[in-house]
Design a protein that fits this description.
This protein has 2 domains: 121 residues, Rossmann fold, CATH 3.40.50.2300; 162 residues, Histidine kinase-like ATPase, C-terminal domain (Heat Shock Protein 90, 2-Layer Sandwich). The strands form 2 sheets. It has a 6-stranded antiparallel beta sheet, with helices on one face. Strands 2-1-3-4-5 form a 5-stranded parallel beta sheet, sandwiched between helices. It is an alpha/beta fold. Helices cover 35% and strands 20% of the residues.
C-alpha cells in the first residue's frame, strides 16, 4: 500500500521506445526476527513475502543490535522468550542508533510498567498475554500500511494505575493505542472486553467527529485503575455537542423510529455506523459528558464492589 516511477512515452508514436538508461531497482524491505520460533517465522513470512519483503534471522538481542547498527531494517520483531524489560532495553539501544526503526515486542514475561516503557520509547506494537498469531499478523500488516508512525502516541505522564496521553487523530495511532491498552489493563476478562470495546468506540468518535481524523490534531486521554473501578477520560479538540444534536447516531433516534440515524447518515454521505455511544452506555456503568460535550468519562466498577448506581 505504499510507490515507484513513471516512464513517459510519446502517445503519437505507435512504436515502443526503449530507454538506454538503467531503470532504478526497487529496494526490498527487510525484516529481522530475533530468536528461533517457527510459528512466528511462518506467520511473518505469510504476511511479508507477498509484499516483497525479505525476512532475516538473528540468534539473540545482542546479535540483533550488532546487525541493526551495521544495516537498516524496516521492521524488527523480538523473541517471545525474552522478557518485556529486556526487550524495552533493546528498544532504547536501537533508538539511539536507528531512531525510526519499527519494533514489535513479543514476550511471555511482561508487566504494565514494561508496556508503558515501550510506549515512551515508541515501540510500534507490544504483544503478550498469550497473544495469537492472528493478532501478530494484523500488527505486521499495520507496518506495511504505515510509512510514518512513531510520533502518534505521546506519554505525558504514566504509572501503571494513572496514565495521561496525547494521541494523534489517525486510525494508525488509534489501533496501536488499543493494543497497548489491552496489554496495560490488569482487569478480569469480561471487564477487559467491555471497557476495551467502549473505549474504542468513544476514542474513534472523538477522532472522527472532534478531530476529523486530522493528523495535526490530538485527543487527550487519561486512564485510571483503582482497586474498585477503572476510568477513562477522553477529550477531543472539537467544539463539542449535546446528545440532543446527535441525529446521526442511534442514541438520538425517536422511540418509534429505531433506524432514523441510518437514513440520515446515508443522506449525508457518512460511513455506516452510529451505534458507538449506545454501545458504550451498555458496556460501562457510567458514561458522563462534559458541559461542552467534547469530553467524556467512562467508568466501570469491578467485581466485588457495590456500584453506587448509574449517575444521572
Amino acid at each position: 500500500m505504499i510507490p515507484g516511477g513513471v516512464i513517459g512515452r510519446d502517445m503519437n508514436n505507435t512504436k515502443t521506445e526503449t530507454s538506454n538508461e538503467t531503470k532504478p531497482k526497487l529496494t526490498s524491505k527487510v525484516a529481522l526476527l530475533i530468536g528461533d520460533d517457527p510459528e512466528v517465522k511462518a506467520a511473518l513470512s505469510v504476511v511479508l513475502a507477498p509484499e516483497g519483503w525479505t525476512l532475516e534471522h538473528s540468534n539473540n538481542l545482542d546479535d540483533a543490535l550488532a546487525l541493526a547498527k551495521a544495516r537498516q531494517f524496516d521492521l524488527i520483531v523480538t523473541s517471545r522468550h525474552t522478557s518485556g524489560n529486556q526487550d524495552v532495553e533493546f528498544l532504547r539501544r536501537i533508538q539511539r542508533v536507528k531512531p525510526h526503526t519499527r519494533i514489535i515486542i513479543l514476550t511471555d514475561d511482561s508487566t504494565p510498567a514494561d508496556v508503558i516503557a515501550s510506549m515512551r520509547e515508541h515501540a510500534f506494537g507490544y504483544l503478550s498475554k498469550g497473544f495469537s498469531i492472528e493478532t501478530l499478523a494484523e500488527t505486521v500488516r499495520s507496518v506495511l500500511e504505515t510509512p510514518t508512525w512513531d510520533d502518534g502516541i505521546e506519554v505525558l505522564s504514566a504509572t501503571p494505575i494513572l496514565i495521561t496521553l496525547a494521541v494523534r487523530c489517525t486510525m494508525v495511532a488509534a489501533e496501536r493505542l488499543f493494543q497497548f491498552m489491552r496489554e496495560i489493563a490488569d482487569l478480569p476478562d469480561e471487564e477487559r472486553h467491555d471497557v476495551g470495546m467502549a473505549f474504542r468506540e468513544m476514542l474513534l468518535n472523538a477522532m472522527e467527529h472532534g478531530g476529523h481524523f486530522d493528523p495535526e490534531k490530538y485527543v487527550e486521554i487519561c486512564y485510571v485503575r483503582t482497586r474498585h473501578m477503572v476510568m477513562a477520560r477522553i477529550k477531543d479538540p472539537g467544539d463539542g455537542f449535546t446528545l440532543d444534536e446527535m441525529h446521526h447516531a442511534a442514541i438520538g433516534n425517536p422511540p418509534d423510529d429505531p433506524i432514523a440515524h441510518v437514513i440520515r447518515r446515508n443522506d449525508e454521505g457518512m460511513r455506516p455506523g452510529g451505534y458507538g455511544v449506545m454501545l458504550a452506555k451498555n458496556l460501562v456503568d457510567d458514561l458522563v459528558y462534559s458541559e461542552k460535550g467534547n469530553e467524556v468519562l467512562l467508568i466501570k466498577y469491578l467485581p466485588g464492589f457495590d456500584s453506587p448506581g448509574q449517575l444521572p
